[in-house]
Amino acid sequence: xxxxxxxxxxxxxxxxxxxxxxxxxxxxxxxxxxxxxxxxxxxxxxxxxxxxxxxxxxxxxxxxxxxxxxxxxxxxxxxxxxxxxxxxxxxxxxxxxxxxxxxxxxxxxxxxxxxxxxxxxxxxxxxxxxxxxxxxxxxxxxxxxxxxxxxxxxxxxxxxxxxxxxxxxxxxxxxxxxxxxxxxxxxxxxxxxxxxxxxxxxxxxxxxxxxxxxxxxxxxxxxxxxxxxxxxxxxxxxxxxxxxxxxxxxxxxxxxxxxxxxxxxxxxxxxxxxxxxxxxxxxxxxxxxxxxxxxxxxxxxxxxxxxxxxxxxxxxxxxxxxxxxxxxxxxxxxxxxxxxxxxxxxxxxxxxxxxxxxxxxxxxxxxxxxxxxxxxxxxxxxxxxxxxxxxxxxxxxxxxxxxxxxxxxxxxxxxxxxxxxxxxxxxxxxxxxxxxxxxxxxxxxxxxxxxxxxxxxxxxxxxxxxxxxxxxxxxxxxxxxxxxxxxxxxxxxxxxxxxxxxxxxxxxxxxxxxxxxxxxxxxxxxxxxxxxxxxxxxxxxxxxxxxxxxxxxxxxxxxxxxxxxx
Length: 566
Ligand SMILES: Nc1ncnc2c1ncn2[C@@H]1O[C@H](COP(=O)(O)OP(=O)(O)OP(=O)(O)O)[C@@H](O)[C@H]1O
Fold this sequence. Notes:
By secondary structure, the protein is an alpha+beta fold. The protein is 62% helix and 7% strand.
């Protein structure tokens, strides 16, 4: 505080947002959003028409979209980031490009930050804080974090929402809803994607993120869940300095969790950090059913004493927690690659919906168990899996519950962090302490019984492991049984063949119509009906165009078939 009792605000050197308030007229904003949507649709239509649907082209289009989302600002940056976890909704190339979409939004000025604090807390800044650092510790698309000190001497961080953000969200979501309704009305092909449900999902998700009271409550719940873990730190919330747009938290500094050189220089055992990180995540997911759905490296840090600090509780997800003996059973089911048991647990947790034909889900879980059990999780392998799903569900879109996609994304992110710390690490080995912890700290007879039984079964299973030849025959057998590969592929093949026949017949009809109208027009032209002849010429032109479109579709279909057969 300076002599006049006012806090001096140093000017920040960081570039500041020119459009800090995001005030647009509804008309201008509608124009901006609709322009991007229409251009994207036209690009996609053009690619489809010209058969230019290569992965390179999709990357090009996705890069263009990322640029536009950045220009459209916070709402769209957040939607893009949320979409980047949805390999079940959008093509892989878009997933890859959108996952590079960072909150590269310049910070807003400290004067604006102070104005928000004073308006929200209803008091001048100097009565609230003894010190307030004008240069933010971090700035993202939704808000920025400033360090401050209370009059009682405690160091805190103040997270301030970007001015005008809520109004922008309201306007953008209203316009997006309008777009969804228009799409459903005029583009019937879009209906099968159930855009309304996707819109609702994103709407709820993003509105939660701009309510800091909600975030503070999440932080309290998370801290309570980890109260017996003395190596986990969750900053306290200062509720008297918190509103929907201002969140004041205890200042808990740390080293960024993936910063291996600094961790090693501070003599922190990185293997220990990995084990603790995995244990914390498994606990969140399995024991509490309440987990951080976006555990990126900025949301976790390590204290000088090796404790893990969690920041940011804006995006928490919930699943049904499972009983501990079920957890042990599932753990062994993963070890034994028992697809059915794993699926039963996923259904119970609400992560998979039981449907009549569980074949694709079984294939997916089987693939995951094969791919990831003993190896590091590789995003590319997940992409390969999504590729298979895309192929199978070309005609019938397949949606995973959002929680499942959060878990997959979280696991791949955590895996990336763990590998940055120790390239040799193994997920299952790192998960052992968690299992031991639940088995031996609770001392429940029931649980120990399950553990003993499962261990005995597992040893028996290991002893009865078939030879390599038997194993490959079994695998072939189970693949046939699981995927009913031949039957399904043939059914897709026959659907594609049917589509080609339809296109062939269409082309034939258009050829006949074009030929017939052209001849009729030529005959009438030499007679007295010149005006009718002109109309018929125009009509034959139209048939030619439709013929051209159907031939292009046919060529496109041929190309797709060739790619699939490769
Ligand atoms: N309690 C805290 N103590 C110390 N530093 C903190 C604290 N909370 C946040 N930070 C710092 O601020 C950064 C951003 O915080 P946080 O993730 O909560 O903000 P955000 O606006 O939600 O960002 P994003 O959306 O990118 O995750 C953290 O990475 C951390 O460096």
